[in-house]
Amino acid sequence: MRVYVPATINVLQAALAGGAADPAGRRLPPGLAFAVTSELREWYASGDTEELEYAAMTMAARASVGLLAMDVTAPRRRVVVAAEVDDAAVRVVTTNLGGERGRIEVTNPIRFAQIAAFHVDGAEAVAAVSAAAASPDDDWAADEASDHELLWYATQEIEDAIADVIRTTETGDSAD
């Protein structure tokens, strides 16, 4: 099952550092994620698989803002990790909340070998994402952040992407 895990740059750095001696040991912790669940399919009846996956990724990006609100040290970039996990490692969280219909819990750590891609905000999104993280209950601010498309990175590019985000955060450079 394809899952979309909300994260931050700090979460990715910790996962990479955790496998510094053994790259096979790199893992994301279990927890909140989003996927194309039957509840999401029912709600989004007219969408094809690609549209449903985009909806799940968008939900994960919004959840990433919540993580940023809790970690003031993380660069103000939303991060979503797309990974393939066994269905047995997923527990669907049933809710009646419209924005949470694709919510799941991944019950096992996600090995980096399971990761298909990373999605990270570009520098142009920093102001909107910062405003959303400063006011996580403000739907208008969250919508402004959502107006920015996440950039796609292959798994082999993530270390360079993290370094670039850190560099632009430290220097205040607005170019990626």
Topology at a glance:
Blueprint: E1 2-7, H1 9-18, E2 27-28, E3 31-35, H2 38-43, H3 49-70, E4 79-84, E5 90-92, E6 103-106, E7 110-111, E8 115-120, H4 126-134, H5 139-146, E9 151-153, H6 158-171
Antiparallel strand pairs: 1-3, 1-4, 2-7, 3-6, 4-8, 5-6, 8-9
Helix pairs in contact: 3-4, 4-5
Describe the structure.
With 176 residues, this protein is of the alpha+beta class. The chain has one domain (2-171). 39% of the residues lie in helices and 21% in strands. The protein is built from six helices and nine strands, in the order E-H-E-E-H-H-E-E-E-E-E-H-H-E-H. The protein has helices at residues 9-18, 38-43, 49-70, 126-134, 139-146, 158-171, and strands at 2-7, 27-28, 31-35, 79-84, 90-92, 103-106, 110-111, 115-120, 151-153. The strands form two sheets. Strands 5-6-3-1-4-8-9 form a seven-stranded antiparallel beta sheet. It has a two-stranded antiparallel sheet with strand order 2-7. Helix 4 packs antiparallel against helix 5. The model has no long low-confidence stretch (mean pLDDT 89).
The number of helical elements comes to 6
Q: What percentage of amino acids are in beta strands?
A: 15-25%
Oligomeric status: single chain
Structural class by SSE content: alpha+beta
Cα-based radius of gyration, to the nearest Å: 16 Å
Strand order of the largest sheet: 5-6-3-1-4-8-9
Counting DSSP E segments of at least 2 residues, the number of strands comes to: 9
Biggest sheet statistics:
7 strands, antiparallel
Q: pLDDT average, as an integer?
A: 89
Q: Total domains, how many?
A: 1
Fraction in helix: 25-40%
Question: What is the molecular shape?
Answer: globular
* SSE pattern, N- to C-terminal: EHEEHHEEEEEHHEH
